[in-house]
Target: Myelin and lymphocyte protein
Amino acid sequence: MCSARGTSGFWLRSGQVTLSHTHHVPHFDLQIIGGLVWILVASSKVPYPMLQGWVMFVSVFCFVMSISLLCLYLCGAHGGGSCWVALDAICQCTAALFYLSAAVLEAYTTYSLGLFPILAHQYRENIAAVVFAFVATLLYVIHKVFSLLRWKSS
Model:
């Protein structure tokens, strides 16, 4: 079922194999953590709507992009082409940079909310959003490293 092989043993797989062996980290983690960031940011109220808008854009964009790539891999649409390895690497790099910027902006917003003790509930919600945004950043960086290794070997 494996369709393209690089010299260092990284495979571009399709079907059920995609879920467990494409990366050394499970693929559904990006969707779960990204969805949590999306929900937490949507439920929080921040004094800077432009920052919240960017964080929402990043979380929704990366969530849709990851789901789309996962569905295409599950369907076997890549057909063994090496351009799909490059597309995966580009998407993972873009998502990692976007999530890093969103996590830093969300952390800044949370820090500014911490200066006002009246907004303690919103502060706790934003702390959770910041933690999950940095976890999502870490996961995208891990996926980026494996995508770049697979791209280099193809």
Remarks:
- The longest strand covers residues 4-5.
- The first helix runs from residue 17 to 21.
- Strands lie at 4-5, 11-12.
- The helical segments are 17-21, 28-43, 49-75, 82-114, 120-153.
